[in-house]
Amino acid sequence: MTLQERIRGDDIELKWPEEGPTRIPSWIYTSEEIFRRELEVFHYGKSWNYVGLECELPEAGSFKRAWIGPRSVIVTRDENGEIHTVENRCAHRDSQMTWKECGKFEDGMIVCPYHNWTYAMDGSLKSMPFFRGAAGNPGMPKDFDKKQHGLVKLRTTVRGGVIWATYQEDTPSFEDFVGEGLPWYDRLFNGRKLKLLGFCRQIVPCNWKFYSDNTHDGYHAALLHTFIPKFGLWRPDGDYHQVPTADGRHIVYHMKYDSGLQHTRNEVTDELRVLKSEYELEDRRIVNQHSDEFGDSTNTAFQVFPSTVIQQFHSSFSIRHMIPKSATTHELSWNFFGYEDDDEEQIKARIRHSNLVGPSGFISAEDTEIIAQLQPNVNEYDSRHVIEMGGKGTEAAHTMISESAIRAFYSFYRKEMNL
Amino acid sequence: MTLQERIRGDDIELKWPEEGPTRIPSWIYTSEEIFRRELEVFHYGKSWNYVGLECELPEAGSFKRAWIGPRSVIVTRDENGEIHTVENRCAHRDSQMTWKECGKFEDGMIVCPYHNWTYAMDGSLKSMPFFRGAAGNPGMPKDFDKKQHGLVKLRTTVRGGVIWATYQEDTPSFEDFVGEGLPWYDRLFNGRKLKLLGFCRQIVPCNWKFYSDNTHDGYHAALLHTFIPKFGLWRPDGDYHQVPTADGRHIVYHMKYDSGLQHTRNEVTDELRVLKSEYELEDRRIVNQHSDEFGDSTNTAFQVFPSTVIQQFHSSFSIRHMIPKSATTHELSWNFFGYEDDDEEQIKARIRHSNLVGPSGFISAEDTEIIAQLQPNVNEYDSRHVIEMGGKGTEAAHTMISESAIRAFYSFYRKEMNL
Amino acid sequence: MTLQERIRGDDIELKWPEEGPTRIPSWIYTSEEIFRRELEVFHYGKSWNYVGLECELPEAGSFKRAWIGPRSVIVTRDENGEIHTVENRCAHRDSQMTWKECGKFEDGMIVCPYHNWTYAMDGSLKSMPFFRGAAGNPGMPKDFDKKQHGLVKLRTTVRGGVIWATYQEDTPSFEDFVGEGLPWYDRLFNGRKLKLLGFCRQIVPCNWKFYSDNTHDGYHAALLHTFIPKFGLWRPDGDYHQVPTADGRHIVYHMKYDSGLQHTRNEVTDELRVLKSEYELEDRRIVNQHSDEFGDSTNTAFQVFPSTVIQQFHSSFSIRHMIPKSATTHELSWNFFGYEDDDEEQIKARIRHSNLVGPSGFISAEDTEIIAQLQPNVNEYDSRHVIEMGGKGTEAAHTMISESAIRAFYSFYRKEMNL
Amino acid sequence: MLAEAKSLEQQIRDFYEEYTICLDDADYDRWSSYFTDDAEYKIISRENFDRGLPMASMSCEGIGMIKDRVTALVKVLVYEPRYWRRYVSSVRVKACDGNVIKSGANFLLYESMLDREPQLNMLGQYHDTLVRDGDSFRIKERFAVYDNHRILTTLFAPV
Amino acid sequence: MLAEAKSLEQQIRDFYEEYTICLDDADYDRWSSYFTDDAEYKIISRENFDRGLPMASMSCEGIGMIKDRVTALVKVLVYEPRYWRRYVSSVRVKACDGNVIKSGANFLLYESMLDREPQLNMLGQYHDTLVRDGDSFRIKERFAVYDNHRILTTLFAPV
Amino acid sequence: MLAEAKSLEQQIRDFYEEYTICLDDADYDRWSSYFTDDAEYKIISRENFDRGLPMASMSCEGIGMIKDRVTALVKVLVYEPRYWRRYVSSVRVKACDGNVIKSGANFLLYESMLDREPQLNMLGQYHDTLVRDGDSFRIKERFAVYDNHRILTTLFAPV
Ligand code: FES
Ligand code: FES
Ligand code: FES
Ligand SMILES: [Fe+3]
Ligand SMILES: [Fe+3]
Ligand SMILES: [Fe+3]
After folding, report:
1. What are the helix and strand counts (H, E) for chain C?
2. How far apart are CA E112 and CA F146, in angstroms?
């Protein structure tokens, strides 16, 4: 019996440790009950979920598939250019409407493969074969109301070329939802048209919050990742900020890039054993800045909870889409993009700097690798993680060496999850 | 937590929707509790299960393995020619008696590989090594009664060369169990000796009732399958009958084959988008009738619930054996056969027409393909399927375009399952 | 729903059959609740678990990974030569400390890969980066007590070159734990230095107690395994002893090897159908004795519950390590060894005779093969195994043909498990 | 480099690999050109094959039926899109009598769906009769015998 | 036995297999010697490749970046130790123009961790441009296109 | 077509594939004929092999023990019936000194039971010493080194 199964059998009480956010109980990473509650509270609740880029839907009839946790949805563009998000699930018998990542619906209609119920791009049921019968059969009953049998439709919004969807009518506007971090969002999604560069997808055998935690954990970044301090991408003695926003729901990270930082040594770098490693790069273009696109020489990561981390490292832009699949598995989907008017050298730089991130990134591969190996231990042990670096508070920290963003997030999480 | 796990946790009440058989709740396709109840009520209850063809047991000592849901049983022929069905499970320590599909037991005895307990072909325990001890050991206790430790035996019957088994003493006779559809059974199993042509087995990642439903669903056949209307195998404007029998337990399908039908066009065919597709066959022998063996130019499928669909499409004869493995997996085993006195051309025709069915059948492959993709959606959503084509009744329908056989079946199902 | 799932749903009451140890209920092989209780009662309870050989830790800083059920632990040797066992799990966030089977920790320190918390070889937390902060960050809170955040440490003992660990403070001494079988332990681990010859590991899809039962089951050995009686390794009419010790917790097997036995025939051998098989070996060195190392011409197997069977068959020495992984899976890890001063011929003989055992052993492969195929049946059926060969008692038996050791073990098991 | 310089074994191996590439590339029209007009093509379970039972999961009598399978696969049937990839190994020439060659090989077929992990779909061996056709060969008879006890969901992929 | 006696197809096949052996043996320094100085090396999803999207999971522009990948793999990165094993099949020569050869092959990559069962990590096909270099070849451009929809956890293994 | 026209690499590859076919066809008597009388044959874990530990999961000293393994497999042992299928790749000649050849290859072994889906049973590499025997070769030493951390249930299949 894994921990998760013991929980289901009520051997373990789902009660947060008394210490508060300085302790995380291992059962939040294993319990299917918690997992289901998270989906209801966050993904299917009052949240905006990332579902794609506007540029993925070039014309009327275009569609793309997206995932909101274990649910697949279809994002469409109708003939008026409007964008809709509907569940990939027929109102008749739950058939998937499409198996494809993207494409174009003929005649602007979504036709179910099983019995050909036919829906408009906004999910409303338009027709079905033999609706009024045939050859003596009466067809559908007179009281069948097509309006009651459309595809489930989500509210959809677009900001800066990025598409977001929510299940709830009373989710605040996307802008209010994002809150005070919005300028960081707008810095990247500033009205320049976006250009899709490609996807890198990973399936990871651990709870999705380990990934979320890891992005909130500046502390590990200087200790696990040699590349970060070695090449001065950022460093414990550099200009680094982790700023909880919206009561800990979303967290902004920004750090100034100083190309000279990598060459200095001091009592901070003495603590970094990873700096001891003796090696050099043959081609430093991967770690060096290509151009200072925003004029602030800054790299950023902005976790817009629950679905994304929006990231700009040098010239690499990506939306890291966290897709929970079960309590013990998640997909991490990297959506890389640039601007439509990027020249060839700029695109090359985006691809080049993307070697730092993604499934084989000099930095990011270590993240996924390390979190995947936590899962066997949390499955087995009813333990308490100790989150005390930088004190016990939840305020913004202006250093890498702090776990305050994790504490801030779990303060928010407990409140929303009622734990 | 999948829907099935939520059910186990009592988040979802197993209560049929008020609308009755016009709605099917998705949890009947996901709940392990429902699955177990189905096995107890149907397969291990008062039902006759398909276990093989008499011709598979040519001589005394012959055996074949069969499956009743997740249980494997052994069908044997003893020296008197009598056929028995016993569980593939030793009375000592649950060892499987054989791992093989078929074969011959030496000396007409079933010997367990683990400690060599030895059973007759009818499952009665005959002997075991050192029953009365050896070298000072007393052997088995004096009060050990061999009669209490045989293999579990099922009641077995044979009709028309087909072998059926039931766990219950009070299951009605096979003939009473089949009921008014018996003439359709006897049409195919008419006393001519059968000849086994081979097996095609599929393992399918969805609930077994999706397969059963699909055979009850004439509605999809004209819409999903291009081949059926295109080549006029049957058509919404043709002579087609779906007839619930035995209160909805078994359902008979029969349709007249009219080779001219494929060439006509009318307001019915206008509704069939699959007819729009432009293609031709190079070799029409697969879709054309080879000979009218029964003098009625009819094709048939007869679902003898819970284990089989007995089918004759042109010259292809098969018993489709539905074998539930878990709530979310089933095996579909096609048992193809002909008559012992078939000539070579007839056998060739049987094989040729079997390209319409089976794992890669021009028709049947689409069935399994479409139902397999329903499972992820029912796993995730607590939904209600809407079964209203052709009205809300459960009577026989004389058209393809009706879901009344599905409603008839679920009326029966709810009663038996007490839902 | 497998039997295990039905149990979880309380359909089956976990109540031992009234007959006592002559019946074993199938749910002890399938229930995750039982499995978890077994780990708590036995492996994590007052038992000594096998974790390795002293010779695997040649020097200060050496470590090896070991498994106690699903938990991985690290066995280390410190600079004073002392051996420690600690969990492979960081006190910070449950990271595994190492992924390797064995190796050497640099500087005698165990450093966590994630945030570099650093532990001594005995698991005590020594340091962590930025413990007192950096660049304005305060570091860890003043009240953080390193002593409270070490790796979980197990009590460790070494006898005769073999390392054992226990979770409990009040586990009796290893010698008291082993009890009256200790001379059989000391016969093999007699002070001569051990030499590791290698590992053979098997992952087996069945409950671990089927393996344990099988070692207690002399009855099968003459019936399943042709090699044993055929080559007179031991035989029902030979000198064979199965001796429950420590109230049935541990069981000693010893049997005299008589090279002439294989050639005799009598009423005992008449019951052995496996003797009928006509075949010969080209090279009998595998079945013949190489030398009588202990001067008693005896082969032995000693189950030191719950983790090992210590075995000497001719010149092959091994510790069979049983590692439960779940209710339905276990690992069987063969740890082969000899003595440090073995000459080359002796080592060759050890390897040669090891063809009788291990994953492809002429004897042992059949054991694992047969028990693996029991699991599907116990998953499906709520059955009672009938353990009556040799009567109903639990005393020592001086014959192969008895199940009294199984009854002795389950008498002990029920008491400990409170069943 | 002339084909004549190659041994028959090499030529046959090349033929099997080209065939595999053709299918992996979904070049189905070309695929049908690998067969003689009267070709017999079956994908059959090891169970049926070993027991001498004639029923196959897919049976084509002649090039027409082979081409119809292509038509169905490309234009007609509804099935989940995926990538198929084949691995061929242990190509063997069993007999060679004039222009007629008995040959065989082992095959593995993997499939990669668009929303989940790849899986082994089928594995087994070919039992073939080839005939020489100029520099290359055509298949006169192919039994693709699969070892797997059951087809994984459905069988759409030619092998 | 002289290399000249081998057909181009054989030479190319040998080249692919040697390359595979080199990687299986973790002989990474030698691995980088299989590339030209200006080599382009990408491990890219079939999804991106078929849609013409340029982003790859691993992208190297020139030998420097390839060697840096070796440095990272051998000296720098933290990852679970394992054994990788590669199977290459259906090696094909698509075109040959002087010293420049367009070629490809199918690949399978398995990985065996130290505490659990082996798993298929990646499968797909190579799309390559080779140039002759004396008796052998160098890779000027390699697109290793993987069919799997998602990378299994992480991508460390070169292919 | 004469064998002499084949390069050593080709001959060795053919030898490995014939050996594989022989085993897949369960032609075990012929299988033992691939070995010299004094052959050493081991199926050993990568763990033991890399650490220099001599214990193997199967160890045969000489042709007698190899033949006894055949006897056991065919006539004696109780085990679940199944189909085995082997894939060999990356055949390599490591050294050739007169009649003695050091060679190797990668192998994959799949098994298909009669009531469930096929599974990968074992994968790894051969480390061999062959000796010439007329037109063909015999195996003087074979270490079949498997990468998998654990044997899947049991080991019956020779590789
Ligand atoms: S399931 Fe969509 S039309 Fe029937
Ligand atoms: S389990 Fe069948 S004889 Fe023991
Ligand atoms: S998990 Fe070990 S140091 Fe953080
Ligand atoms: Fe990181
Ligand atoms: Fe259908
Ligand atoms: Fe045994």
Report:
1. 11, 19
2. 10
The tokens describing A257, both together, are: 């890039």
Token pair listed for A72: 């697949």
Provide the residue type at F20 as one letter. Answer: T
Instruction: Answer for the pair A166, A45: CB distance below 8 angstroms, yes or no.
Output: no
For residue range C30-55, list pLDDT tens digits in order. Answer: 999 999 999 999 999 999 999 999 99
Q: Does F24 touch chain D (CB under 8 A)?
A: yes
In a mutational test of the D interface, the residue from E149, E153, E159 whose CB has the highest number of chain D CBs within 10 Å is: E149
Amino acid at C305: F
Q: Backbone dihedral region of B333: left (phi > 0), alpha (psi from -120 to 50 degrees) or beta?
A: beta
A355-358 contacts at long range (C-beta below 8 A, 24 or more positions apart): A355/A286, A355/E58, A355/E59, A355/E60, A355/E65, A356/A227, A356/A233, A356/A286, A356/A287, A356/A313, A356/A314, A356/A316, A357/A311, A357/A313, A357/A316, A357/A318, A358/A200, A358/A318, A358/A334, A358/E57
Distance between CA A103 and CA C181 in Å, rounded? 73
Interface mutation target, options C99, C100, C326, C330, chain E, most CBs of E under 10 Å: C99
Pair B244, D29: CB distance under 8 Å: no
pLDDT at A100: 97
Q: Using an 8 Å Cβ cutoff, are B54 and B194 in contact?
A: yes
Question: pLDDT digit string (tens) for B274-333?
Answer: 887 789 999 999 999 999 999 999 999 999 999 999 999 999 999 999 999 999 999 999
Q: Are the CB atoms for B102 and B56 separated by under 8 Å?
A: yes
A242-278 burial, b at 16+ Cβ within 10 Å, e below that, comes to bbbbbebbbbbbbbebeeebbeeeeebbebbebeeee
Taking CB atoms and an 8 Å cutoff, what residues of chain A touch C95?
370, 373-374, 377
Ligand 3 touching residue C130 (CB < 6 A): no
Tell me the pLDDT tens digit for each residue of C231-265. 989 889 899 999 999 999 999 999 999 999 888 98
In whole angstroms, what is the distance from residue A100 CA to residue A64 CA? 8
Q: Which residues in D lie closer than 8 A to residue F123 (C-beta atoms)?
A: none
Q: Is the pLDDT of residue A5 over 90?
A: no
Q: What is the ipTM of this complex?
A: 0.96
Q: What is the pLDDT along chain D (159 residues), one digit of tens a residue?
A: 344 467 898 899 999 999 999 999 999 999 999 999 999 999 999 999 999 999 999 999 999 999 999 999 999 999 999 999 999 999 999 999 999 999 999 999 999 999 999 999 999 999 999 999 999 999 999 999 999 999 999 999 999
Residue B418 tokens, joined: 């007490």
Give the whole-angstrom CA distance, residue C194 versus residue E14. Answer: 46
CB E81 within 8 A of CB F147: no
Compute the Cα dihedral for B62, B68, B73, B78 and give only its sign.
negative
Cα pseudo-dihedral E113, E114, E115, E118, rounded to 10: 30
- C6 and B36 in contact by Cβ < 8 A? yes
B336/D contact by beta carbon, under 8 A: yes
* Contact yes or no for C150/C124 (Cβ under 8 A): yes
Report CB contact under 8 Å: B354, D55.
Answer: yes
Ramachandran region of residue A247, left (φ > 0), alpha (ψ -120 to 50) or beta?
A: left
The confidence score (pLDDT) of residue E101 equals: 98
User: Are A116 and B223 a contacting pair at CB < 8 A?
Assistant: yes
For E95-146, write each residue's pLDDT tens digit.
999 999 999 999 999 999 999 999 999 999 999 999 999 999 999 999 999 9
* pTM of the complete model: 0.96
d(CA A153, CA A165): 10
Buried b / exposed e over A172-183, threshold 16 CB at 10 Å, is eebeebbeebbe
Secondary structure of residue D24 in the 3-state scheme: helix
Give the separation between CA E45 and CA E149, rounded to whole angstroms: 7
Kind plus residue range of the DSSP H or E element containing A187: helix A182-188
